[in-house]
Amino acid sequence: MCGISGFTWRDEALCRRMALALSHRGPDEIGVWTGDGASLGHTRLKVIDLTASGDQPMANDDGSIVLVYNGEIYNFQELRAELEAGGARFRGTSDTEVLLRGYERWGLDCFQRFNGMWAVAILDRRRGELILCRDRIGVKPLHYCMTSKGLAFASEIKALLEHDISREVDQEAVDLLLSAQFVPSPWTLFKSIRKLEPRHLLIWNLERRSLEKRCWYEIPEYRPEHDLAALVDEGRALIDDATRRRLVADVPVGAFLSGGIDSTAIVAFMRRHVEPGKLHTVGVGFELPGLDESEYIRMAASKFETVHHQIDFRLDQIDSLLDQIDEIYDEPVADHSSLPSLVLCEETRRWMTVALSGDGGDEAFGGYQSRQVVVQFLLLRRIPTVLRRIAHRILASACGYGWSRFGRIAEALRVSLMPPEDYPGEIGASLVYRPAVYRRWTRDCMRHLLPLSQGNLVEAMLKFDIYFNRLGDNYAAKVDRMSMAHALEVRSPLMDYRLMEFASRVPVRWKISRHGTKIIFKRMLRGIVPDEILDRPKHGFAAPLSAWALERLDELARDAEHLHEAGVLSREWIVYFRAAFADPKLPYAMEFLKRLVFLVRWHRRWGKAPAVAAATT
Fold first, then answer.
1. pLDDT in tens, 15-57
2. What's the number of domains the chain is made of?
3. Catalytic annotation present for 15
């Protein structure tokens, strides 16, 4: 795991400054390469091949191809054997060299062969091109910007801020952050900087100074199969193989353990390949009983004979953790679970360099109760339109759109009268402000996904969560920043693209229904994960940030007004937040106030240029 950076001209000092800005991502080595047409920087966290033969930037034999890469290719051993059979010679044992030789042999088609997570920059001097590529899900980040001299890129925005570029805030990105809790690609909070979308390539022609973007991976279509026993066996085998592949490393490997289904499942499959007493796990306990899962963590650790390490999250840590997160998040994920995640990653790094997590299971197999609402919504749409229109008119007039039972029905009826692609952008819009850019983004995503889902709205929403909404720039970005702040690599077996493609072959009714969530996933795990964990209600991973924010409402209200005066918050958001400050018990109010906390603190730290500007490029 590493940090990458660079640009399309030659400047060794600037390239080194960018690399140093990312040194937390890779504290073991810093490498810089400069040549005709480009400068490439790399900070290395040694995980596979700890020798100098794995250092980057890495070049092929004649120096015509040079790359920097952040991530892991989990099937690199098989690909290496195939490349060697074709005549390729290797200097070391790293997966980076497999990526290099793979591109040398297969060109851009190499990415279709990789099973992994990555952000990579490849300078192909033969073709006069700099190629940027991001993995299928977007587990690893990649940002870029245009300067007067050309294209610059980096794993994190803070490295791009070493260039003399504008820090003007993008209002659309602010709208998206407050609406979705993250900023989806290609936006960032800075107008001058963009994120490369997952599944995409960016190709810069060095001679023509032109930029081309391509999507290199297609989201799989929904093709349901109906042999439940066969699907259960196949899914279980895929989880086992995905876990086994992620155990390959030349450094200690362990796991996060939360006591939930997903993390427990990963530990269970790890134990198949790790001897008793050699598997280290780390968990977080909470002072507040409603958040604490220690009972189930202890149960899982005992069942699978792990060497478990537990750390407690304390309320008096919040101020200090927010200060740390201000430095880490040069673009925030406004998710309060960032706080315990940071505590977890710091403790985990004491015991291992690589940790496996359970991320991805809820998205692939329908683990969110909010998606059960979609199932109920579809039942509502079976009622003839004319009857829904009449019922909506009566209820909206009599009850309005509130948090009462009839208010929620009125809201559901309102949305049901709209096209299906409007559902994710409209749900709740009667209770909170939904800016136009958020509605447009969700609508565009759903218009792309509904045909791939045979028109099934539930399947389209699950695909939305996987490929646009919950993973990638959201949860994966949070985990990436919190873990890399402590030079910890996190691998997620349930985010293996083969499992995501497998999920597209599972009928929706075996993923989520009115009666349950993650239906087939739980069946895969029955007899592997303890029933007490498998059958417990879903429990989120969160921090008690609400109480902290409530104590600071007056200060937060002043900060919101300052953001409005600075042109960061629109008038519509100010109207909404003023109502929320007056009555934090309004539906969704507290959730949006917590998002505002992250925005306020981000703008204070990153939204303005430093007093002494960085050297110009």
1. 999 999 999 999 999 999 999 889 999 999 999 999 999 999 9
2. 4
3. no
